[in-house]
Design a protein that fits this description.
The protein is α/β, with parallel strands linked by helices. It folds into 2 domains: about 110 residues, FAD/NAD(P)-binding domain (3-Layer(bba) Sandwich); about 100 residues, FAD/NAD(P)-binding domain (3-Layer(bba) Sandwich), CATH 3.50.50. The chain has 5 helices and 13 strands. A hairpin with a 2-residue loop joins β12 and β13. α1 packs parallel to α3. The radius of gyration is 22 Å and the shape is elongated. It catalyses: [thioredoxin]-dithiol + NADP(+) = [thioredoxin]-disulfide + NADPH + H(+). One of its GO terms (molecular function) is thioredoxin-disulfide reductase (NADPH) activity. Keywords: Flavoprotein, Oxidoreductase. It holds the Pfam family Pyr_redox_2. It comes from Pseudonocardia hierapolitana.
C-alpha cells in the first residue's frame, strides 16, 4: 500500500526559497514537509554551485553557495520540518474534502492544508556545446562544483553571461590561464562582474567568437579551437 502523510504545509522544492518558506511556516507553528527530487537540500546552488561566491543576497556581501545553503537549512531546522529528499512530486489533485494532495514518484501521497511550489526552473538542462560532443567528463563540463579540480590548468570558458564571467574570474587565481570566449558582440554579464575585473583578469578572445571544434591531445583530455566570426 502507498504511504500517506498529513501536514499543514507541503513545500515542493528545497532550494533557498523552499528552505526559507519552511522556516516561515515553522515559525508560525505549522507542520511542514519539504519535497525535492534532488538527494540534498539547497537546490541548484547545492548541486551545481557549492563553491561559487554568491553576491546578490540582501545583507550578505558574499558567501559560498554551500555556506548559504547551510545557514538557510540551520534556520529552517530549528522548527523540525520533515524532508523528503530524492522524491519527485508527480501529481496534484484535491481530496474529497477539498484539501490538496500531492503524489510522489514512490507512491507516497501527502495530504496538506496548502501546497507551496518553490521548484525554480526545475531540472538543470545545460545548453550543449555541439563541438564538444563526446568530451563531457573528459575535459568538458557545464558547471564547476570544485574549482580546485582546475588547478594549474589552461581553462577555456565559453559564454558571456554572469555565470561565465563570474567563473572565469573565480578560476583565474587557480588555473594556469583562463580564456573567455563569447559568440555575441558583447558580454551580457552585469556591470559589476566586468567593471571590477582586475588588470590581470581572464583574457577575452576577439568577439564575436565561437568554438568550432574540440580534440584530444597528449597533455589534455580536451582542447578547443575558437574561431572569430567574420
Amino acid at each position: 500500500m502507498p504511504a500517506s502523510m498529513n501536514t499543514d504545509i507541503l513545500i515542493v522544492g528545497a532550494g533557498p526559497t523552499g528552505l526559507y518558506g519552511a522556516y516561515c511556516a515553522g515559525f508560525r507553528g505549522l507542520r511542514t514537509v519539504v519535497v525535492d527530487a534532488l538527494p540534498q537540500a539547497g537546490g541548484q546552488i547545492a548541486a551545481l554551485y557549492p563553491e561559487k561566491e554568491i553576491r546578490d543576497i540582501a545583507g550578505i556581501p558574499g558567501s559560498r553557495g554551500r555556506d548559504v545553503v547551510a545557514a538557510l537549512k540551520e534556520q529552517a531546522d530549528a522548527f523540525g520540518p520533515q524532508y523528503l529528499l530524492g522524491s519527485q512530486a508527480t501529481a496534484l489533485v484535491h481530496s474529497p474534502d477539498g484539501r490538496p494532495q500531492v503524489s510522489l514518484a514512490d507512491g507516497t501521497v501527502v495530504d496538506a492544508g496548502a501546497v507551496v511550489l518553490t521548484a525554480g526552473i526545475g531540472t538543470f538542462t545545460p545548453r550543449p556545446l555541439p563541438a564538444g560532443e563526446g568530451f563531457l567528463g573528459r575535459g568538458l563540463s557545464y558547471f564547476v562544483p570544485d574549482p580546485s579540480a582546475h588547478d594549474d590548468q589552461d581553462v577555456l570558458v565559453v559564454g558571456g553571461g554572469d555565470s561565465a564571467v563570474d567563473w572565469a574570474l573565480a578560476l583565474h587565481p587557480i588555473a594556469r590561464s583562463v580564456t573567455l570566449v563569447h559568440r555575441r558582440g558583447g558580454f551580457r554579464a552585469h556591470g559589476p562582474f566586468t567593471s571590477a575585473a582586475p588588470p590581470s583578469s581572464p583574457t577575452p578572445r576577439s568577439r564575436p567568437c565561437s568554438v568550432t571544434s574540440c580534440f584530444a591531445r597528449r597533455t589534455s583530455a580536451c582542447a578547443a579551437r575558437p574561431s572569430t566570426a567574420s
